[in-house]
Amino acid sequence: MNEQDFVNEREADWQELSRIVQKADTRRGVRALDREDLLRFMRLYRRVSSDLAYASAHALSEDIVSYLNGLVGRAQAILYESETSSSPFRSVLHFYNYEFPALLQRRCGYFLAALTIFLIGIGLAYWMVITSPPRLNLFIPKEFRASVRAWKSGKIAAPPSAAFSGKLMTHNFQVAIMAYATGPAICVPTTYLLFYNGAVLGAMSALMTEVHRHATFWPGILPHGIAEITATLIGGAAGLMMGVALLLPGPYRRKEAFLQAGREGVQLLLGTIPLFVFAGLIEGMFSHLAVPAWLRLTFAGLNGVFWYLYLFLPRRPPILGGEEAESSGRRN
């Protein structure tokens, strides 16, 4: 089936789902749908989700994939609304259990773009410093230069990993917010922030190579750094998403695309709060306890696995209201 045949065959379902979503996209939400609309909504949601998977797998045009992605995202928010309307606590729990990870998975391309920029920063800074150590000052904040020089010369015995990680990582929430907020500026400030954050880490890593102290540096960074860096990348992904929405709005009007990206960006940013809270607690604990390096690294690996499974493992949330409605329809 070629692209035009696919559109001709499936477009009626897309338009019907869009109509129902628009009807539900009011203050009344899902309560605005009657029984017949709700049953159609459930069937159409599954079909259009399947269409999105087909369009992505067969590399159809970006406009089609973008349109279906947006439609499925809007439908999903309506679909799960009945599960979150009973109490504020349940709503928050539902957001972190399902909505936030599902949104990040739909927008995974932006996360990968943010990760790529960050890794380029690490790699370039590492190469620049390892080939010319004086370049370290290009990347290390001024307030750290004196302590880094003193440590490197042997005037102080302990590596500055705890101080470095504490100072750098406590700023990462602000960096995540700035990366999101500056996204509309054609992605340039967001890209710079992601690159520079990676460059600082890359420059310090090059210094560790020069003085042979990776074994003492990374155990001080990774236990809390994995969660914080991941959260910062999510903030960067939100900013890139807003910038791209302005540059390439796809089938939507520019304003509509930007507002949609802005709403999703706020959700992504809110989703990072548990990661930052977790990282802050762990950083405080490990900074004051004499924990062996092997245990720190083991813990870092385990919490890294946990967070990435939480963020990227697909899951099917309970759709009790929809399933009950559909079952009722079959009985009648």
Automatic annotation (TrEMBL):
<feature type="transmembrane region" description="Helical">
    <location>
        <begin position="268"/>
        <end position="287"/>
    </location>
</feature>
<dbReference type="Pfam" id="PF01944">
    <property type="entry name" value="SpoIIM"/>
</dbReference>
<feature type="transmembrane region" description="Helical">
    <location>
        <begin position="226"/>
        <end position="248"/>
    </location>
</feature>
<dbReference type="InterPro" id="IPR002798">
    <property type="entry name" value="SpoIIM-like"/>
</dbReference>
<feature type="transmembrane region" description="Helical">
    <location>
        <begin position="293"/>
        <end position="313"/>
    </location>
</feature>
<keyword id="KW-1133">Transmembrane helix</keyword>
<protein>
    <submittedName>
        <fullName>Uncharacterized membrane protein</fullName>
    </submittedName>
</protein>
<feature type="transmembrane region" description="Helical">
    <location>
        <begin position="110"/>
        <end position="129"/>
    </location>
</feature>
<keyword id="KW-0472">Membrane</keyword>
<keyword id="KW-0812">Transmembrane</keyword>
